[in-house]
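Entry type: protein chain
Record version: 2
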Amino acid sequence: MKIMPAIIVGCGLLAAACGTTTTQRAATGGLAGAAIGAAVDSSLTGALVGGAAGAAIGAATTPRFDNVNRRQYFDERAGRYYFYDPSARRYYWEDGSPRR
């Protein structure tokens, strides 16, 4: 049964990357940490410690989107604002739909 810990760790790593908001990342990290902590320690204490550590790590590793340079422009013909997303190298309307 040496393969079981590897499966648990692999599932935990996959679940730790789920979510885009701080709340989602903390929840998935906490669940993965609790599962791994319970599997390693086989007690409630291990699950609690693993869950707390997973939630903290999940919340701390949330990507920040607030520092992206999103300068808005106004399209006079459409009467709408749009912005350029440098990471995608595309223009988008203010509501997030692609500008064509």
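Comment: The CA atoms of residues 41 and 47 lie 8 Å apart.
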